[in-house]
Amino acid sequence: MRFFEFAPKTPTLPKPKTPDQQRVAVLQGNKDRAAEALKKERQRQQVSNAQKTIARVNASQPMQMPKPATN
User: Among 15, 49, 50, 70, which is least packed, fewest CB within 10 Å?
Assistant: First the structure.
């Protein structure tokens, strides 16, 4: 066997990105963050609307007092 078969492989560093590739990567990151923010805002609005609906339904129903237990 030869030495190169036993020798540990040296890690190769990735080449630096060109300015155009960096620009595309930044735009892609911005798009992903905006999509995530939009998703979270829609979820927040759904929860808010559901809470308002529950409060409205609970307010429209009269409270019924439990009958006292007789012994």
Answer: 70
CB 25 within 8 A of CB 17: yes
pLDDT score at 23: 98
Range of the domain at 27: 20-57
Give CA–CA dist 43/37, Å, rounded.
10
- pLDDT value of position 59: 86
Backbone angles phi, psi at 22, to 5 degrees: -65, -40
Assigned domain for 64 exists: no
Distances (CA, A) of 47 to 21, 42, 50: 39, 9, 5
- Would you say the pTM of this structure is higher than 0.90? no
Q: Which candidate, 9, 12, 28, places its Cα nearest to that of 20? A: 28
- The C-alpha atoms of residue 25 and residue 9 are separated, in whole angstroms, by 29
